[in-house]
# Entry
Amino acid sequence: MLEMPVFQVYCGEETPQFANAAELECAKLLDYHGVPWEYEPRTFVLGTDEEGRVVEAITPDFYLPEQDLYVELTVMKQSLVTRKNRKLRKLRELYPDVKVKLFYKRDFERLAQKYGLSHRT
# Structure
């Protein structure tokens, strides 16, 4: 289980349950710099079946309300990111007014190095 700090600018209602250490470190970075954030506040439906049941969706990791920006963090090997990229392209097509940014493993590693964060996943 990940150690949960007390966040100062977290805007969500429930305690976030991060999927991995990289998400926690990203949340710490946002909080440290005073950037208000929410964790997985919205799921976007990308596909439904004939009965209207959701068959594909994406829930971006963070929402930054002051920037009206969703952030998806992936620390997967680059070769495994293709599916996530496809989902984000579909999200942009279906929800053109939604701004979303994908941070790759290399982006997070650069941030971790710059700010002295742990980047174990």
About this structure: The first strand starts at residue 38 and ends at 39. The radius of gyration is 15 Å. Strands lie at 38-39, 44-48, 54-58, 62-64, 69-73, 99-103.
